[in-house]
Amino acid sequence: MSNLIVESTYGKLQGEQVNGVCSWKGIPFAKPPVGPLRFRAPELPDSWEGTRDATSFSAVAPQTRRDIMEFFGNDISNVSEDCLYLNVWSPAADDKKRPVMVWIHGGAFLAGSGSSNWYDGTSFANQGDVVVVTINYRLGVLGFLHLGEIGGADYATSGNCGILDQVAALQWVQENISKFGGDPNNVTIFGESAGAMSVGTLLGFPSAQGLFHKAILQSGAAASVHTAETATKVAGHLLTALQVEPTNLSKLEEMPVEQLLQAADLLPAMSLQPVIDGVSLPKHPEEAIAEGSAKDVTSLIGTNKDEFTIFTHFDPEWKDADDAKIKAIFDKTFGQLVPLISQHFAANVPLGQELFNKLVTITVFTHPARKLAELQAKQGAPVWMYRFDWETPVFNGALKATHALEIPFVWNNLDDENTINFTGNSPDRQLLASQMHQAWINFARNGDPNTTDLQEWPAYDLNNRSTMIFNRDSSVENDPNRMERIMWEQAAMLMKS
């Protein structure tokens, strides 16, 4: 079909049509970041002659196998450094100006891809008349190793290569999406976990300004960045493990990628993430947002009620942990704050896995999300807040409303085998999926998630703190977890004093 051949800036692309939706996969948005381009900002892709087949996904970014990602169905059978590609789903490649939704995948900045079955854009295109774009970006050591203080100007932005890849994809969208039936003046970026943390970073990232108009952050905010000092220490540990002298960084460009990945796997969790490098990211995203960097961006921000349960469930440290082991885990995670935590959150009852999950959920997810919402509300930017409370029955209900559980509901992709392993197969799932899917579509279309299937959902403000609670019976609550919020604020003040 002729309307499946699209003339992009760099050449013609041949897509395919399945179930009434057109798709184009494996579209290059930057040069392969290999050899001397390893640890460098992405460069524009080369043009091609003739028509490029765009019916298959590209390779995914280099990453190692992880149990939790395997449970989510992450496919790493085709991995390559040549990974900077994106995928498009659209009702038609015509002149219609449809809302555009650009998805940034999660995976702790170490794993994942834009080609997961979970992120199939067919339902958004069919149900919402929306154009969906999913992207890959460099991960882990290739995307977030800050070498600027060690290697100088040549490596000044190496710690943000993954974010710069996302910016390059958004620039591609601006230049090309109108050819696929999308409106470059109505772009919503959305992501989950590290994808949402990426969105939060992009809200304060100078070169991303003007490339998107709305933002959805699912279980991530604008708090997950390293200082240059911290990131340089991480880089030092990695260089030591790899036996690379700081004066010979070019050796890193020649090493097999597997060697880099194995060394990076020895680092603590979240050691590799965006960096305040003073060049691509001059200041903390929260600081930039407080100064108005995203005042023109409408936001939808939310978390899941029991974010951290899945991490401790898959963590062998918690298997049969006795009191001494549990205290050691708390000490390792919270350090000198443990007595304060016991006093404010545990009412001096013994420390345990349930309390640990609750505290990490607050620290890593709930508090940063609320802070971002408050920063945006103070700028006068429209903000909507949600919390996902639907609990999965799998593993005898142990996961509750855990991290990533909302994704198949948002995408309305409940029938995938990996989704059923995660959500179960009860028929009541579909009503919630339809509600959330439509809310996200409405938000992308006009900046307001209200739908006829939900009660009125007011914008978030500092007086009411209105929050949509997504569950079997979804409803709005004002200031949910109010006592937890107040206790956390009090504890935070004590930490500073």
UniProtKB/TrEMBL annotation:
Pfam annotation, one family: COesterase
Source species taxonomy: Bacteria, Bacillati, Bacillota, Bacilli, Bacillales
One GO MF term attached to the UniProt entry: hydrolase activity
Keywords, alphabetical: Hydrolase
Transmembrane segment boundaries: none
Domain Carboxylesterase type B: 4-484
Enzyme Commission designation: 3.1.1.-
The species this protein was found in: Mesobacillus persicus
Protein name per its UniProtKB record: Carboxylic ester hydrolase
Annotated family: Belongs to the type-B carboxylesterase/lipase family.
